[in-house]
Amino acid sequence: MDTNTLNKKVQDALSEIRPFLESDGGNIELVSITDDVVKVKLLGNCVNCSVNQMTLKNGVEMTIKKHAPEIKEVINIS
Predict the structure, then answer these.
(1) Residue 10 DSSP code
(2) Residue range(s) defining the domain that contains residue 49
(3) CA distance readout (Å), 2 to 6, 7, 9, 36, 77
(4) pLDDT tens-digit profile of 50-71?
(5) In the predicted model, what is the mean pLDDT of the chain?
(6) Which of 44, 50, 62, 72 could be bridged to 26 by S-S, CB 3.0 to 4.6 A?
């Protein structure tokens, strides 16, 4: 799959999850996609949230994999 298509799928997934993060005063941005690993940056209240790793794995990663099953992992960088 070309990088533009994969990038669009990941951006679509982030657009789907973003309203939930924004409702808690947070946000997320795509940093990079390399070797089927997506790097994102949690923003706002998500940075210091005690459940941000659970949100990342159960919410963000699950949603991204639904849109782009070829993605193996989602990592938060700070």
Answers:
(1) H
(2) 3-76
(3) 6, 9, 11, 12, 24
(4) 888 888 888 999 999 999 999 9
(5) 92
(6) 44
